[in-house]
Specification:
It is built from 17 helices and five strands. The chain has helices at 17-23, 51-68, 82-93, 106-118, 149-158, 205-218, 225-228, 242-246, 252-265, 270-292, 313-320, 327-339, 344-357, 362-372, 378-389, 403-410, 415-419; strands spanning 2-7, 27-34, 75-79, 97-101, 123-127. Strand 4, helix 4 and strand 5 (123-127) form a beta-alpha-beta unit.
């Protein structure tokens, strides 16, 4: 059998059920498709793929290719729309089976349906590689996913202390040969930007597994994670696993197994549990995105709670450029633009500012995060923005932070604001009026 394996958010050799299934073939073509739509402006004045994500992704692809070559394989990188690229490769190589990982997101689901229609004589299969649990291992049908994370966590942990046993797939050490090496068009991809000062992330499975070991058995950061995770600007205060989890260079099950391994060999405390707790939050939003589909991207959220918002261009621009009246917000936004990453605490503060102080549509903030964040994940990003906007999974409604109080608590000496130049010399006020601004309801 000839199989085409479409790499998406599963850029790894370890714990990859989809690649394992694809390896049971006579011939295997490994493909990654770079979609030009990622680099075009979307409806919220942002691109889907900014320079930080693109650099990290390309590093991950090159690392994956280095892993494939010793197995007699290579990664075919195509620049184009998957709905056009994949059927052409199927016809060119007589492919009988197409495999990919199951992805949350309505756009990705539409692509898969389009391929099914375009390839009626080809077997199409999806496997769950992004999540901790398979759908069948969940304690409830996805259609009955609880409306809050707390309810979800309780049901998962009721099955066992941390839910069902998580079975990892071994790291693949052999793959079938390809049906020839087709010429790809990776040279048509956008240029890879150089990293900016302060960028510490390096893409790829190799770096991901190194970081996993460093944070656990290396510096034992996991043992104090709950106490340090809210720091605004410190590399080892949190795990920093999220970029590799987002593009699948690191498996969530691998992280979970390493946590349990650390607890057996070193110590088990509230911090080690809390890292699992955060992993379970990610899991909840994965199934949340699958459960709610298009509602994930709607202004009124999954709750269909109508929110009156007005869009003023100067406010959004000031927020993006770190030029508001709030120094801690400016510092975080400057850090985001320069590095592609900000802490969990900083994300909550800048989101609260956009929603409450600037009174803007939360979807603009979500779109800017999508463009900028090196760890962008569609489910976690839009799920968290809905949560803070009071239209998603938060039972308490709107979450508003006192920005001055938060700055005093998490940046008492002003070091974070100073480092990232948060004190704007000419901050843009809320009521600046320009003839080019037009409120959008």
């Amino acid at each position: 059998m000839k199989t085409l394996y479409w790499f998406t958010r599963d850029l790894r050799m370890h714990d990859n059920a989809a690649l394992l299934a694809a390896s049971r073939s006579d011939l295997l073509l490994c493909l990654y498709v770079v979609d030009p739509h990622w680099f075009a402006n979307g409806p919220f004045q942002c691109q889907a793929m900014g320079e930080h994500r693109w650099r990290f992704l390309w590093q991950s692809l090159m690392d994956l290719e280095r892993s494939l070559r010793p197995l007699g394989q290579r990664l075919h990188i195509a620049f184009g729309e998957p709905e056009q690229v994949i059927p052409e490769l199927v016809r060119q190589h007589g492919i009988q089976r197409l495999i990919r990982s199951r992805l949350p997101g309505t756009f990705e689901a539409q692509q898969w349906q389009a391929l099914k229609q375009a390839l009626p004589d080809t077997t199409l299969q999806q496997f769950e590689t992004l999540s901790l649990f398979t759908e069948g291992a969940l304690p409830m049908p996805v259609s009955e996913l609880p409306g809050t994370f707390s309810q979800f966590r309780k049901q998962v942990e009721k099955q066992g202390e941390r839910g069902p046993e998580l079975l990892r797939i071994r790291t693949l050490t052999a793959l079938p040969p390809p049906p020839g090496f087709p010429e790809d068009n990776r040279g048509d991809c956008p240029p890879i930007p150089e990293p900016s000062p302060g960028v510490d992330f390096r893409g790829g499975e190799t770096a991901a597994l190194e970081r996993l070991q460093a944070f656990t058995f290396g510096n034992h950061g996991i043992a104090t994670y709950k106490e340090t995770r809210n720091a605004l600007d410190d590399w080892d205060s949190s795990s920093k696993f999220s970029p590799w989890l987002a593009n699948g260079s690191l498996s969530a099950r691998e992280v979970s197994a390493t946590i349990e391994d650390y607890e057996r060999k070193q110590t088990r405390n509230e911090s080690t549990y809390w890292l699992w707790f955060e992993l379970l939050w990610r899991e909840y939003f994965y199934w949340y995105a699958i459960r709610h589909g298009n509602r994930l991207f709607c202004r009124d959220g999954v709750q269909c709670k109508r929110r009156q918002v007005t869009f003023y261009g100067h406010r959004f621009k000031a927020w993006c450029q770190g030029n508001t009246e709030y120094p801690v917000v400016n510092a975080a936004m400057n850090q985001l633009r320069q590095t592609g990453y900000i802490s969990n605490r900083a994300r909550q503060l800048v989101a609260s500012c956009l929603i409450h102080e600037l009174e803007l549509d939360w979807r603009y903030g979500a779109a800017w995060f999508e463009q900028q964040l090196v760890d962008y994940d569609v489910a976690s990003n839009y799920g968290n923005w809905q949560y803070l906007a009071g239209v998603g999974a938060d039972p308490r409604g709107l979450r508003q932070f006192n920005l001055d109080k938060q700055a005093q608590q998490y940046d008492p000496d002003g070091a974070f604001v100073e480092r990232w130049q948060g004190r704007s010399s000419q901050p843009v006020g809320l009521h600046t009026v320009d003839a080019a601004d037009w409120p959008i309801l």
